[in-house]
Amino acid sequence: MPVPIIMPKFEMSQETGLLVAWHKSEGSQVEKGEPIFSVETDKVTMDVESPADGILAGITAQAGDEVPVTTVIAYLLKPGESLPEVSVKKESIPASAEQIVKEESAGRPTSEQPQAEKDRSAESEPTPTATPVAQRMAAAGGLALSTIRGSGPNQSITKADVQAALAGAGAKESDVTEQKVRGAAEKVRATPAAKRAAREQAVNLRQVQGSGPRGRVQEGDVVEFLSLEPENLDGRQAVIPGLSGEVEIIALSGMRKKIADRMVTSCQSAPHITFTTRVDVSALESLRERLNQKAQQNQAANISLTALLVKFVAWALIRHPALNSILRGDEIHRYKTVNVGVAVALPDGLIVPVIKHAENKNVAQIAAEIQDLAQRARQGSLTPGDVSEGTFTVSNLGPFGIEQFTAILNSGQAGILAIGAVQREVVPVENEVAIRPILRMTLSADHRTVDGAVAAQFMAELREVLEYPGMMIY
Amino acid sequence: MTREITYLEAVREALRQEMQRDERVFIIGEDVGVYGGAFGVTLGLIQEFGEERVIDTPISELGIAGAITGAALTGMRPVGEIMFMDFITLASEQLVNQAAKIRFMFGGKAKVPCVMRAPIGSGTGAAGQHSQSLENWFVHIPGIKVVAPSTPYDVKGLLIQSIRDDNPVLFLEGKLLYKTKGEVPEEPYTIPLGKAEVKRSGRDLTIIAYSIMVKRAMEAAEQLAKEGIDVEVVDPRTLKPLDTDKIIQSVIKTGKVLIVHEACKTGGFGGELAGVISESEAFDYLDTPIVRLAGRDMPIPYNRNLEYHTVPQVENIVEAAQKLARLEV
Amino acid sequence: MSQNQHPYEPLDESVKNKIAFNQGNDRLKAWLALMCKIRAFEEKAEELYTLGKIHGTMHLSIGMEASAVGAIMALDPNDLILSTHRGHGHCIAKGADLGLMMAEFLGKECGYCRGRGGSMHIADVEGGNFGANGVVAGGIPLAVGVGLGLRMQRTDKVIMCFFGDGAANSGPFHEALNMAAIYNLPAVFICENNQYAMSFPYKKAFKVARIADRAAGYGMPGVTVDGNDIFAVYSAACNAVDHARNNGGPFLIENVTYRWRGHSKSDANRYRTKDEIDEWKQKDPIQRLMAYMVDSERLSADDAEKVQQEAYDSIDVAVTYAESCAEPALDTIEEGVYA
Q1: Are B243 and B270 within 8 A, CB to CB?
Q2: B227, B256, B284, B329: best mutation site toward chain A, by most A Cβ within 10 Å?
Q3: By CB distance 3.0 to 4.6 Å, which of A418, B41, B154, C184 could disulfide with A407?
Q4: Is A253 a member of any domain?
């Protein structure tokens, strides 16, 4: 009987162990008690001893792998024995902690499999880990994941693996559909509208994940792609620890994944500096009231605080172009016009439609545009043009009662302004106690291109014009 | 001044007003005189205009078709009636080989200004030989125009215009539309042939429908609106010549199109529409395949329930539209 | 059964003479000239076709000239005709310009139909010829419509509708003759019984001895005459036209005649014998009129020949004209489909 070798648990709360190194190689003879690999936990590095004599075989974890505790990572075989066929419960990927790779691992240079590769029983269909993209593509291509060799960490199956499988000669299905898919793996399946959108916005369709039937790229997918501009869609599979008990597992995919990737990129590449200032919005509030009376008379859209702020922000950005710029590679692109993105919350994420040339629009236009864009954003009918070419972003969580918060920069932009709630506060006015409506706004800026003083000046001038709106005419 | 009248009354009014205006206009068909027409369309007209201008014929569809063609050649403007479109099969020789072609064959030196009216469609339990919609046959014939109005307002304006048109016009009246009501101006007016109408403006999906299917598409649109699917309904009104511009514009706007007609799917007019759309600028804006929802490829059955399920109904339109909107197609 | 036993009564000699007298020599000569023109035209058309200059097909009426001329001479200039696929004769008898006809046959822009109609659809609506027709019996229902139109416009014009024995068995014949009768239309229906509907002999196609017998079935008068005797044709036609014009309703005339050539150019004449054809050639309508006129000294033999020669000459002129005409321009290809 093959003896399993597992990743051991050393501490109570330990969930994974980092396999530092194997001391013995695949196929080598091992004695009981002999150290065969070392493991690093949060606290210590430990050697793990062999539980029995035998030939080390079926190694499924490599140096550097973070392996969930109690996972079988190798076997000890007696001469003539073969590795067991393991049936793994079919759970939704990637929950299971018991992951076994199949015979394809025979092809890996570091291992020799003493048994038949194609030896697979009908019932035991091990479900290997696979990235969400890979899963979708495999499903679209009619391929069982178990037929695909995985090249990712822990033999997980990546998009590249699926593409190779689809394009390769491995599949012997006579199903016409699958043959077509194989042949069509070189072509992107996309609707004419998606192709046009991609063409117009210079998007490589291959990078866009399709949400339509049979993995078809729809126009909305291109729109989404544009609004988030993720840099890496390959979606490396992060190992999610298996949690026993109740857990809802949501694959990180679609918009969520794109946002995740984007946030990571932004945080990793842009050193964020943040600046908060408190603004007395009494003047702003009465201005807004008056504006809305006018709007009502003209049966025009209600002018929200956000719309008003967009207008003033645009004014201020014209005067502080350093904040109205985008860093692309080695170039700082400072824009002479202001396209303000306004963050809109969606049930499954967020999207940032853009008010173009905001400095040239009056607040009534801006308000109408915001209303239209927000509505269409919620309906999912934004066009690529709606979400592209933003130069600065504004995010208002005031309606949720958030006093103050820090926003993460939007892909490459130099600045993002986070707006908090207006709260009546006690403030000193000329040595007397007064109660004023106060708003806290927080600028996050990219320190690669914006220094503290520059940002501070922008904020100062923005605050000034918000407190004295008439200053706009200067 | 408008008032509410039925589609059938609107047809009658168009006939009457044109006959009053132009003494060259006359009506000829089976039972159009004293009987008042098989569906009652011409009721009262023989009393007003006399036997000479409201002519009853024996059962002679071919004769009727020949009569309107020959009379048109002498300068009259006849309006013939085929009792059920199904019987146009008997009249085809004169319509297809003579009326449609004479002008061209004579080097453009003759014209055949005539109208042939025929009721189309199922839903009355009349079964296989009294329920067909054969409009696509005639859309295919150069030299004929084909009109299929969906509302009382449209039917009056289009019939008056058809009578005034100098070409042979096949004028198709939906049987189930005869009793529908709508606001119709009292005075004569025309609606140009070859102009579609957007019966309902929408953003998410275009439904192209004509004749009885317009009504059903509008009902479907109401239901779909409740789920947040905003449907645009385009009614071509004239099938030949077709207002391709309006259709193309609509498809560009929504990117999704559902074509609905009662006639059998295979070889039906929907294929023509799909071809027009995919050969046009609208192709680049399609976000889903062009879908046709049409009658099953079978004769209309007698059994009421079977008859109902042979052609698209409101719920079928709703379902097909939902599939498109949800990108399940 | 020999063709000689066909059941029509030959025209009484006295009637013939009366007609001849009333017409006068010039008129008769004009009749002869017309028939000669038709003959010459048909022969030339045949020749051009054989030379490959006319494309498509054609249906020649050589041998049937009297049926066309005699009938149409009974009409007023303002009356109308509808013709068949074998309609060159009717066209010429109605006064068509030979040059424009030839041009149409050559498919030229200046032809009657701008080259779009050709032999089978040649028409001159302005001139009262509502067209040859490519569909057998295609013109008969049209005659009903024309008759209705003429009457509703309170004209006293008559529509003369030609068709062949083949048409007399088709549906449209039935529907149209019935309708013409019940509406009392000013229509004269002329059935040119040339013994064959393409290859199907009249004797096999009809159980009745005379096609004109069917007239009674529709409640209209009918008469069968020797279609190769121009006087007989004329006499019957005058009677019918008169009847129709004066509100007597429609009339059916059967002109018994024969076509010398096959149905169309691709007809190998397998369904009839050379003897039969020769027998009918003896009854050549042109020869018969010519003989009558020469015998009754209404025309000299020389003049008779001159008439024939002039006919051939006029055809040559027509051909020259037609050949000089231009082809239709390609960018006008879709014109005329809709008004």
Answers
A1: no
A2: B284
A3: A418
A4: no
Q: Let me know whether B170 and B21 are in one domain.
A: yes
CA contacts within 13 A on the Cβ side of B285:
19
Q: Are residues B229 and B278 in the same domain?
A: yes
| Contact between chains at C135 and B93 (C-beta distance less than 8 A) | yes
Contacts of B28 in chain C (CB under 8 A): 148
Whether B175 and B210 share a structural domain: no
Show which residues on chain B lie within 8 Å of chain C, measured between beta carbons. Answer: 26, 28, 52-53, 55, 57-58, 60, 62-63, 65-76, 78, 93-94, 97-98, 102-111, 113, 142-143, 145, 165-167
Residue ranges making up the domain that contains B209: 197-325
Mutation pick from B87, B104, B147 vs chain C, by most beta carbons of C within 10 Å, is: B104
Cβ distance of C142 and B70 shorter than 8 Å: yes
> Which residue of chain B comes nearest to C135, CA vs CA?
B97
Pair (B256, B180) in one structural domain: no
Query: Which chains does C contact via 3+ CB–CB distances below 8 A?
Result: B
Q: State the CATH number of the domain containing residue A102.
A: 2.40.50.100
> Residue C130 and residue B70: Cβ atoms within 8 Å?
yes
Mean pLDDT score of chain B: 97
Give every CB contact of residue B67 below 8 A, 6+ residues apart in sequence.
B28, B57, B78, B80, C141, C144, C145, C148, C179
**Residue from B54, B77, B87, B98 whose CB has the most chain C CBs within 10 Å, to mutate:** B98
Mean pLDDT of B229-253: 97
Which domains, from first to last, does chain C contain?
Answer: 10-324 (3.40.50.970)
- Put simply, whether B127 touches A (Cβ < 8 Å) is no
Which regions of chain A are under pLDDT 50? Answer: 87-125, 169-184, 230-244
Q: Does B286 touch chain A (CB under 8 A)?
A: yes
Last residue of a domain, one of A71, A92, A126: A126
Report yes or no on B190 lying in a domain: no
Q: Do C130 and B73 touch (CB under 8 A)?
A: yes
Q: Which domain holds residue A398?
A: 271-473
Indicate if A175 belongs to the active site: no
Task: Identify whether residues B9 and B66 lie together within a single domain.
Answer: yes
**Does B79 lie in the same domain as B21?**
yes
Cα separation of C315 and C313, whole Å?
A: 5
Q: For the domain that residue A321 is a member of, what is the CATH number?
A: 3.30.559.10
Q: Which of B46, B91, B60 is nearest to C179 (CA)?
A: B60
Whether A347 is covered by a domain: the verdict is: yes
Cis before B236 (ω within 30): no
Answer whether C touches A (≥3 Cβ pairs < 8 Å): no
**β-bridge mates for residue B26, sequence order:** B78
Active site residue A451: yes
User: Is residue A259 included in any domain, yes or no?
Assistant: no
CA gap B287, A195 in Å, rounded: 9
Tens of pLDDT along chain C (339 residues) come to 444 456 788 999 999 999 999 999 999 999 999 999 999 999 999 999 888 888 888 899 999 999 999 999 999 999 999 999 999 999 999 999 999 999 999 999 999 999 999 999 999 999 999 999 999 999 999 999 999 999 999 999 999 999 999 999 999 999 999 999 999 999 999 999 999 999 899 999 999 989 999 999 999 999 999 999 999 999 999 999 999 999 999 999 999 999 998 888 778 788 898 899 999 999 999 999 999 999 999 999 999 999 999 999 999 999 999 999 999 999 999 999 999
Q: Which residues contact B22 (CB under 8 A, 6 or more apart)?
A: B77, B163
Three-class SS state of A277: strand
Write the CATH number for B90: 3.40.50.970
B194 CB within 8 Å of a chain A CB = no
| Exposure letters C103-116 (e unless 16+ CB within 10 A, then b) | bbbbbbbbbbbbbb
ipTM of the assembly? 0.91
pTM (whole model) above 0.80: no
Separation CA B182–CA B199 (nearest Å): 14
